[in-house]
Amino acid sequence: MVEELHVLQSVPLPTVARKQFSRRIPNIHWVIALAFIISPVLSLTADILSCSDAKAASIITFYPTDDAYIYQTPDGGNGSRNYLRVGYYSDYGFYRTVLKFDISSIPAGSTINSATFYMYYYSHTGSTSSKKFYVSRAEGSWNEGGVKWSTRSLYRNPTASKTISGGSYGWKSWSISNLVDEWVNGTYGNDGLIVRWLSESGSSNNRYQVRSEESGSYRPYLVVDYTLPMPPPPTPTSPGFGSQPDPEIDTLTPTLQWSGVSDADHCALAISEYPYGSGNIVYNPQQLYGTSHAVPNDTLEYDQKYRWNMQAHSSAGCSGFVRKPIDINEFPKQVAEYIARASSTG
């Protein structure tokens, strides 16, 4: 966020004039006016120092909170075994596997760089012909203790697929970045995954077994690489914002105020004098906490224009800036007109 302020020095005024400063130099009374304007041309980013633009990426591994396999005949499921099943067997019909991961620790608004789902395939019964395995988004609440075919057969369009042959044991993986992004950013509720065959047809035994969460080091898992969302910028609220007329400042040590940013660790402030930019910074605290800060003595001077920028910082990096238009205070003009009239009348 950027604002400009202009401090104006005047000649002595009568007591009926506007507010006078308590600060005085012999035979001189000081009057200060603060005007806020927006510059559409000058660079904003040059006024903030010590800010890294690097975004913080995190990689987290999640393990299932629930997993089970479900089967058609009789309508049932099992979430207590150390294995899961996908395929077909004559006594039970078709099998599907359902899994659920709690990824609520990833903040909403994060960018999902990648998300990969892993299962360990270790056993097979029947034909060794290759089958295409689909991973789809599940819908509806469930838990591994009560899930069965009739309550968890609903799924949406496949997110990822992989062809697996009967004897190709080992870890298998599916990229489900888009699905995890939809969960994290609220497009869909997180009701877990369904793993199934692409085409559930035929009557030949062909049953695949993979390890479940109960199997320890061979349990399924989900690896998510994500970047935290950048914090929004703080919004200055005073001085210079609020109802008209614009406030008049009668101190060289104003208290700057802004709205808090919940996702930020701290804020940075830079005050630069005209013509602004990093080469003209007069005050630049980098770690401000809370929502206000008093400018110290011997920072601002009379008859000078300043611009103050604020930026929010978090582990993800730094926020951008917000520009808000504001009317220029008429007080400096009125003072100048008064001075001109006083000078002409002696």
Describe this structure in words.
The chain folds into 2 domains: 2-54 and 230-345, no CATH class; 57-227, Jelly Rolls, CATH 2.60.120. Helix content is 7%, strand content 38%. The chain contains 2 helices and 22 strands. Strands 4, 5, 6, 7, 8, 9, 10, 11, 12, 13, 14 and 15 form a 12-stranded antiparallel sheet that branches. A hairpin with a 7-residue loop joins strand 18 and strand 19 (281-283). Residues 6-46, 241-247 and 322-333 have low confidence and may be disordered.
Tally of contiguous helical segments: 2
Strand content bin: 35-45%
In total, how many domains does the architecture comprise? 2
Secondary-structure arrangement, i.e. CATH architecture of the largest domain? Sandwich
Please state the oligomeric state of the protein chains shown.
single chain
By CATH reckoning, the class of the largest domain would read: Mainly Beta
**SSE run:** EEEEEEEEEEEEHEEEEEEEEEEH
Helix and strand topology:
Blueprint: E1 2-7, E2 24-25, E3 28-29, E4 57-62, E5 66-71, E6 76-78, E7 83-89, E8 93-100, E9 111-126, E10 131-138, E11 155-164, E12 170-175, H1 177-184, E13 193-197, E14 206-211, E15 221-227, E16 236-238, E17 255-258, E18 266-273, E19 281-283, E20 292-294, E21 304-314, E22 317-318, H2 331-345
Antiparallel strand pairs: 1-21, 2-3, 4-15, 5-6, 5-8, 7-8, 7-14, 8-13, 9-12, 9-14, 9-15, 10-11, 10-13, 16-17, 17-20, 18-19, 18-21, 21-22
